[in-house]
């Protein structure tokens, strides 16, 4: 998928064949686990209720958004703000340092009040708002502004990390709790992979379009990370430098705008109160495996 529209046409067999083969492989895996395997590693009984399905889909979407933000916020800081790699990593701290504390506080509140849907709804609302604000960022954005935006997006992700984990366990049978945690980890990791692939494809295609419209070499989009040091080394008086910064910023705006739409879809899923049940967390744990003296 990362080749689509960038290295090869979307109609090219080099793009379509791997995508189709991958989808068929996933379908065959689910069929095997459902009808053939005696001890399936994918416990499909987790999805006995719509809540499990919806939470898993939301987790995949959240994984995509999380990695797309982590990776491309660094690109923004380096290509648009012209920060060095060390300063760019430091600039990402407002996002990262918000995710962890918010996750901890959310877990404590869920344990205290015994309800979790509020964390999912609030988390998606903050994530969508943060992504929408990221669209406004540009080369001239003041650091104080993007720090606040980063913190808003990070808070939303922190809420969702715990909220989804609790929801998928609460919605399944108690004997499937361990398998639910594994499915949550798998869904989030799958979303992270999509963040790498789809995020890069979206960004590169929009950057290629902008470079072509500005009369600049489109090959820059293929190796946009490697070209950043060259961009930073250009003289401030060179008009090419500002053109490239604007091109990177515009492609990032399109990526974040697309991600905002994806996040809004996740928000709509989370707002379906009839599908994400507010199950009680006060249940006896009945595991399939236990230690015997």
Task: Give a short summary of the structure.
By secondary structure, the chain is an all-alpha fold. The chain has helices at 13-35, 50-79, 85-91, 93-113, 117-134, 143-170, 177-213, 219-222, 224-233, 239-270. GO terms for molecular function: transmembrane transporter activity.
* Individual helix count: 10
Shape: globular
Give the name of the CATH architecture of the largest domain: Up-down Bundle
CATH superfamily descriptor of the largest domain: MFS general substrate transporter like domains
CATH structural fold name of the largest domain? Growth Hormone, Chain: A
Largest sheet: none
Overall pLDDT confidence? 84
Helix/strand-derived category reads: mainly alpha
Rg is: 21 Å
Number of β-strand runs: 0
Helix content: over 70%
- Number of structural domains: 2
CATH class wording of the largest domain: Mainly Alpha
> What is the N-to-C order of secondary-structure elements (H for helix, E for strand)?
HHHHHHHHHH
N/C terminus separation: 52 Å
What portion of the residues fall into strands of 2 or more residues? under 5%
Taking pLDDT < 50 over at least 5 consecutive residues as the criterion, the unreliable ranges are: none
């Amino acid at each position: 998928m990362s080749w689509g529209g960038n290295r090869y046409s979307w109609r090219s067999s080099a793009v379509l064949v791997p995508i189709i083969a991958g989808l068929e492989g996933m379908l065959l895996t689910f069929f095997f686990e459902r009808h053939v395997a005696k001890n399936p590693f994918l416990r499909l009984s987790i999805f006995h209720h719509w809540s499990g399905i919806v939470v898993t889909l939301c987790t995949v979407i959240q994984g995509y958004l999380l990695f797309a933000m982590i990776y491309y916020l660094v690109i923004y800081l380096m290509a648009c703000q012209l920060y060095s790699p060390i300063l760019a990593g430091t600039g990402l701290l407002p996002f990262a340092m918000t995710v962890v504390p918010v996750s901890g506080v959310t877990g404590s509140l869920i344990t205290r009040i015994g309800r979790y849907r509020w964390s999912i709804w609030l988390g998606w609302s903050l994530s969508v708002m943060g992504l929408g604000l990221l669209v406004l960022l540009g080369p001239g954005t003041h650091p104080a502004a993007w720090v606040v935006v980063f913190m808003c997006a990070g808070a939303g992700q922190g809420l969702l990390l715990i909220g989804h984990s609790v929801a998928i366990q609460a919605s399944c049978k108690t004997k499937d709790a361990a398998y639910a945690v594994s499915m949550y980890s798998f869904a989030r990791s799958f979303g992270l992979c999509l963040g790498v692939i789809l995020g890069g494809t979206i960004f590169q295609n929009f950057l290629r379009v902008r470079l072509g419209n500005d009369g600049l070499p489109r090959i820059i989009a293929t190796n946009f990370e490697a070209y950043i040091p060259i961009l930073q080394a250009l003289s401030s008086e060179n008009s090419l430098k500002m053109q490239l910064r604007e091109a990177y910023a515009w492609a990032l705006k399109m990526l974040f705008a697309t991600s905002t739409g994806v996040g809004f879809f996740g928000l709509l899923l989370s707002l379906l109160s009839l599908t994400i049940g507010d199950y009680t967390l006060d249940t006896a744990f009945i595991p399939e495996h236990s230690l015997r003296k």
